[in-house]
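Ligand: LXAUTJHC. Inputs:
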Amino acid sequence: MIQSETPASLIMIFGATGDLAKRKLYPSLYHLFRKGKLAEHFAVIGVARRPWTNEILREHVKDSVLTSIKDAENVEEFVSHFYYKPHDVSDSQSYIQLKNLANELDQKYGLDGNRIFYLAMAPEFFGTIAEHLKIDGLTDTEGFHRLVIEKPFGHDLESAIELNKRIRNVFSENDIYRIDHYLGKEMVQNIEVIRFANAIFEPLWNNRFISNIQITSSEMLGVEERGGYYETSGALRDMVQNHMLQMVALLAMEPPIRLTPKEIRSEKVKVLGALRTIEHDEIPNYFVRGQYGSGEINGEKVIGYRDEQNVNKESNTDTYVAGKLMIDNFRWAGVPFYIRTGKRMTAKSTKIVIQFKDIPMNLYYKSEKDLDPNLLVIHIQPEEGITLHLNAKDTGQMMETTPVKLNFSNNHTPGLNTPEAYEKLLFDCLRGDATNFTHWDEVALSWSFVDKISHYWESKKAEFPNYSAGTMGPKEADELLKKEGFSWWPVTDLDVKDC
Ligand SMILES: NC(=O)C1=CN([C@@H]2O[C@H](COP(=O)(O)OP(=O)(O)OC[C@H]3O[C@@H](n4cnc5c(N)ncnc54)[C@H](OP(=O)(O)O)[C@@H]3O)[C@@H](O)[C@H]2O)C=CC1
Ligand SMILES: O=C1O[C@H](COP(=O)(O)O)[C@@H](O)[C@H](O)[C@H]1O
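Predicted complex:
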């Protein structure tokens, strides 16, 4: 049975003064509190370097909640559960003080020794913090101890293995919750339900009926203040290694025998393991990289990537990636999964388009127009919904066909307010449900796939910039599909208009 309330817990947020905590974690915790999903028995300790007090943190949390939730109520009561501890991540004394405060709050709120350690900090600190939590006794209580880790989980396979070793010395795999916030998105979670709860899709979900699958995640924003981080990452590590490959795995996996984290993960792992390995010189046939130059977004001039703050003037960093993935198994042999993601593109949109094969013959061959292929579009964001593109008879005397759409839109359902990804993920973690977090095996396979591409790219100088801000990426990305008789479905034309 699904628990509707979380167990008593102490949540310790490392990086409590940072951007992620303010924009995502506090509003999400507040939503859980307001919906009655957060147990009355909860306390939060915010941890960071700056010398704040409980009062300053509470004001900060209040501000974060009121900025993002207009009709927030009982905010004073919510923030009264928050405490702050200035901290030095490499000093044992600091952890001992933290432990004393945690033990005190355990008693005060009746938290049963349950603890969640949320590391909302730069990844270089993850290993050190995990080790200190154990050495300095913060995990010495009776209850559960869970470690929530933000991305990026390593920079490549080697660094990810190293990091994993360090945290696994302290926490078991079952207690490690590696966040991929796309797995908390309503429509990403819906992929599984659309596939496995509808008799009409699953029989067609294979290489006999599907011609190709396209996943686009485009952003209008540039790198903003994250130039320093992005220079070491690029779109391949920032988006493909995690979010894009996770969506591929959910679309391609076999039905799990049970809806348990273990069974679902095991099916996803099989997909990632079946990704065709692309060797060095073949990479240009499968992957295209791009970097934005100056251009226009919403009628405003914007600078190119190389002129952004903390970015090298001759940077070779990819801000765009398009690729063809082949899954070499019985179900998917021969079906390309095209992915593309980038910054400073025409629209903010994440969509999945499943294109079905053409019917064997067109009875309406006398018509001027070709029949449009059937498409199933899963709208991840900003609209949330699904659209099925069919052909129907055009009204009138003639037997002409016209494309029609069957739409379901979450955004247009009255009273339905989709929770933020972080709200769902925090709720799951508090309940001990790791389904929508990435298992180490998935992380390792994703890195080994991506490493081949990044090694190749790092060995070659790119002709950057190669797309203007405000466009859908370099022309090579169109050619990638054109040579196989396909083209990218334009994301904005596929929007859900009504339901
Ligand atoms: N922001 C976002 O939208 C997203 C962030 N992430 C990930 O979340 C993590 C946090 O990102 P973000 O909040 O943006 O980062 P910020 O730079 O905004 O915040 C970093 C936090 O770490 C604290 N900190 C830094 N150094 C130390 C130290 N030596 N000891 C103790 N605390 C320290 C800072 O506090 P102080 O300065 O007070 O010490 C601050 O609270 C990163 O791993 C990032 O990749 C992932 C997805 C999205
Ligand atoms: O993880 C990341 O995701 C965001 C895009 O997330 P979305 O929910 O807005 O689609 C991206 O901007 C960022 O660079 C990356 O680190």
